[in-house]
Amino acid sequence: MRCRSFRQWELGFLLLYAAAFYAIVIDRSLHLSSSNYVSFLFYHYETLRGLRPGWISGRLNDISDAQWRNFRENLPILTVVLGFFTIVANILRYWYNLKGRGMSFIWILTSLSYLSYLHGACVGYIISIASLNFFMAKVFARSKYYLGMLWVFNLAILIVNRIFEGYSFSLFGQQLAFLDNYRGTFRWHICFNLVILRMISYGCDYHWSYKKPYFDQKKHMQRCNICSSGKTCYFSLQALEPMCGKIEFPVKVERKRNGDLLIWSSMFAAERSIHGDKYSFSMYLCYLIYAPLYIAGPIVSFNAFAAQMDMPQKNYSLGEIIRYGLKWILTLLLMEAMTHFFYYNAFAVSGSWRHLSPLEILIIGYGVLNFMWLKFFLIWRYFTFLSLMTGIETPENMPRCINNCYDLETFWKSWHASFNKWLVRYMYIPLGGSQRKLVNVWVIFTFVAVWHDLEWKLLSWAWLTCIFFAPEILIKSCRNAVQILQTMLVKSQLSVTRPVRSAFGMCIQRELNAVAGAVTISCLMVANLAGFVMGPSGIKWLISRLLHKDGLPILAGTFTTFYVGTKLMFHIRDAKKCNQLKDH
């Protein structure tokens, strides 16, 4: 009872602190984004790039982020075109009772018309590279060396595409040089990064379909503690053999015990291998250029995609999909309010943060990370919504708010979640999984950086993340080992008394976890600011400012704020657990 009372008092204090923190952040952000301060910067230092006349209260709108600006400006035409494709595809599926093969042809035709507008004559590059990858899979898929060939081929294509920036047609002869005038409106090699992931997914799934025995999902779910808890074990990811009967797909999803994520029962079933005839060129090409997911994803494995082409998802009803879309519209309005009143990204891209105080720099950095989260949230949820309308369910990106993650593993899983699932399936587990975790993270994050772009600041982000990841991995491994040892001692009754965790011991552990969470959040801030805002040189400059006499109080206050935020996250998780216990 005393512990519960203390927790209530603690929660009250934490909420007051959080309210004060956000009041300061909002007040300083409004000051920095005021017309007077923007004019002051213009006359004394430099103008904030990317500010355009807005539609809210006569304020300027921060559209300095090129990715967000392009998405926002093209949203009307994108909605009309993809909405039309979706309606046509659904009508044809309903009228003619089309299944996988028929729907693949429909989507190839519509997607090719879409890509022709985006990339013009460069569609030929996409089809040519995709055909080479398909031919290699069909010839060598049974070979034990195939996966190595697949990765070398796709990594080479990824790097060469970037070096040559999509290739000039004149490289292949002057008679083709005129095609350089018809390259479309969007650089094809930027979108091709996602196509690379899909080509690897197809190749691996096709290769594994020859290697693994029949997989009984029901028995596995009953026996496997990992899968029954909502996670996915090694065997279930790799058990990929063409099925003897029809896949019962999809299955209604269930909630995990911790309430954070959904068990993808339908996706889980589809991740197993599908009928061998679905590995056809038409299904493969449809998967690579499927219009609703082509530009930004989310990423879904070939097996899951092909299974849903045969039988559309049933986890979301029409009403739920409509509510999903309405929530997206409300989030878009939130983003518009944010970019009209807070010019975080304009400060970052203009380099004007160098003229600010240490506190203001940290506020700008924090604001940029929240802007990035909201930007990707809107882009990915938009295409997820369109995909759901066509009957394709994908892993949900951004399942948790950026401000509700206090360890690196959770943050990564809760950011580009579909990419994380792809990395686990096609890289992490084949490389040895948790047995080689400390080595695997370096390989995986280096690949992630190169996949995004060939820039040193992205490599610095990747390697900083790995450095910060190492202590967390070691601590979690030690903690898991101790818990397993305690369980074994209790079960074997080798201990005289069962390990008793005193209230004081639990309190100390909670405080240590909160401090560790604050350290982790600090590391995340540094890594992401280095990779996406300031670059390594900017981070070096910022740290030198914070270590000066006037910056030390700000540094201490920032760490205290991260500590308080971590404690609040603990309370959120405790509340979720209590609600789930009541439900059970």
Automatic annotation (TrEMBL):
GO terms for molecular function: acyltransferase activity. The chain crosses the membrane at residues 6-25, 75-96, 116-136, 145-164, 287-307, 328-349, 361-380, 512-534, 554-572. One of its GO terms (biological process) is triglyceride biosynthetic process. Pfam families: MBOAT. It is a multi-pass membrane protein. InterPro entries: MB_O-acyltransferase (IPR051085), MBOAT_fam (IPR004299). Keywords: Membrane, Transmembrane, Transmembrane helix. One of its GO terms (cellular component) is membrane. It is found in: Membrane. Its main location: membrane. It comes from the Eukaryota. This is MBOAT, membrane-bound O-acyltransferase family. It comes from Musa troglodytarum.
